[in-house]
Amino acid sequence: MSQEIPLWEVFIRSKNGLEHRHCGSLHAEDAEMAMNNARDVYTRRNEGVSIWVVESKNITASSPDDSGELFEPASDKVYRHPTFYELPEELKHM
Amino acid sequence: MSEAEIKSLEAQFDAKIARDEKIEPKDWMPEKYRKTHIRQISQHAHSEIVGMLPEGNWITRAPSLRRKVALLAKVQDEAGHGLYLYSACETLGVTREQLYEDLHSGKAKYSSIFNYPTMTWADMGAIGWLVDGAAIINQVPLCSTSFGPYARAMVRVCKEESFHQRQGYEIMLSLCNGSEEQKEMAQDALNRWWWPSLMMLGPTDAASTHTEQSMKWKLKRKTNDELRQQFIDQTVPQAELLGLTIPDPDLKWNDEKGSYDFGEIDWDEFWQVVKGHGPMNKKRLDDRRNAWENGAWVREAATAYAAKQKTQTAQAI
C-alpha cells in the first residue's frame, strides 16, 4: 500500500465580510477528514470562521505559459480605466 | 529546449527575483532552484517534525498543568509548522511519501540541535528560549524569500513562534527565581544548549558552500555569521536578566564594533552531529520510523473507511 493519500486545498474565511482565502494544503482520505485536519492545522488560534476544502485534482488552473495570450487582451483596453478620460481640472471630484 | 533558450529563461528568472517578484510553483524555474528548494524546505519541515521529540519527552512530566498545556500547544504547533512546510515543498513536485522516506532512510537532514538529549525540565526552558530564539532569527528573513509558498508558510510560522520563545523564557525565569537548586538547573541547561544553539545557525560563511547562490535567490537574506552575531547580541542581555552566565569565557562586549566578541565554536562537534554521531541521532530516527510504522494501521483504516463510504454512496444512488 503506497498509494498517496489525496491532496486537498484549504480556504479559510477569517471573519464574516471577508472572502475565503487559500491558506495551504493537506492530505486526507475524504472530505470529513480534510475538514478536521484543516481545523487542526490551519485554525489553532481562531484564524477562521469558515473553512472550505477542495480536492486539489478538482481545481483547473491556468498555466503561467499561457499568461500572455490569456491576459493580454485586457492590457490594451486602457479605456476601461477612469484615467483614460480627459476632463477639465475645475471638475474636482469625479 | 536549446541551451541558449535556457540561458535566456534563466536571465529573465534572475531579473524577476532581483525585482523582488515571487516565484510560484508552476512558473518556469532552473532545475537547481527547484532542487535546492526541495532540499531546504524539506530539511526545515523535518526539523519541525523531529523537533517535537525532545520536548515530547517532557509533556507527561511537566511540573504543573499550566506548563503542560503550554508545552503541548507548542509541540502541536511544531507538527503544524512541519505540515505547512511539507505542503509548500510538495508544490515543487515531490510527494509527501518521498519526503518521509528520505527522512526515515537518513538521506535527508534535519537541524543538528535535535540530536541532543533533554535531561531536565530546565531543558524545556532553554530550548524555547535559545533554540526557538535562534530559529526565529533564521526564519524572519525567510518571510520574504523568493519562492511564494515557502514565504507564505514562513509568515504563518513566525507569527506562532514568538509564543514558543516566551514560554521558554518564562520557564527559565521561574527556575532562576526559585531555589538554589532550581537556579543551578537553569544554569546547567544554558551550559549545555548554548553552543549547540550557536552551531544551529550553520557553518561559518567561509565554510558554507551554499551561501552565495542562496543569497542570490533570496533563500538566505543574511549570512550564517551575521545571524549568529545577531543571536548572541540579543541573547546576552536576556541571560543577564535571568542572572545566568553564558558559558563562554571569551564573550566580551566590543565597543568599537557595537557587538559581542565570542569564543571559538567547536565545529568538529557540529560536523560529527550532522554526520549522525550526535548523542541522540539514532534514537530520533528510530522514534520517527516507529511512529510511521506503528501508525500504518491508522492510515490503512482511513483508506478503507473512505473506500467503503464511496461504495455505499454509489449504491444509494
Automatic annotation (TrEMBL), chain A:
Domain of life according to the entry: Bacteria
Protein name: 1,2-phenylacetyl-CoA epoxidase subunit B
Organism: Nonlabens dokdonensis
TrEMBL record, chain B:
Organism: Nonlabens dokdonensis
Entry-linked PANTHER family: 1,2-PHENYLACETYL-COA EPOXIDASE, SUBUNIT A, PHENYLACETIC ACID DEGRADATION PROTEIN PAA
Pfam families according to UniProt: PaaA_PaaC
Protein name, per record: 1,2-phenylacetyl-CoA epoxidase subunit A
Any one Gene Ontology molecular-function term assigned to this protein's record: phenylacetyl-CoA 1,2-epoxidase activity
GO biological processes: phenylacetate catabolic process
GO cellular component labels: cytosol
Family matches, as Gene3D superfamilies: 1.20.1260.10
